[in-house]
Write a structure and sequence with these properties.
Elements lengths: L2 E3 L3 E2 L3 E6 L5 E8 L4 E8 L4 E6 L8 E9 L2 E9 L2
Parallel strand pairs: 2-8
Antiparallel strand pairs: 1-3, 3-6, 4-5, 4-7, 7-8
Amino acid sequence: MFAKIKSSIFIDALQLQLSTPAGSCLRGVLKDDTGSVCRTIEKNTISASEVITWNGLNDLPYGRYTLELSQGEDLLRLNLVKRI
C-alpha cells in the first residue's frame, strides 16, 4: 500500500500519508456515488514519506465518494464520506 488516508470522513480537505519513492507521480481521482469524476489531483512526490493535504473540497455535496489513487501500475480504491 503506497498511501493511507488519515480519516475516511472529510469536510473540506483530505490528508494522505504517502509511502512512495521520491520523484514518483501520484494521481488521484475523487468520484461521487454515481461514478462521476468530481476532482483530480496529480503530485510528484518529494520525499519517500510525505503528507499531502487536498484542499478545496468544501463545495462538494455531502455523501459517499470513492478515491482512486494510482502510482504507475498500482491502483488503490478508498471509500470516503463527506459530512457536516
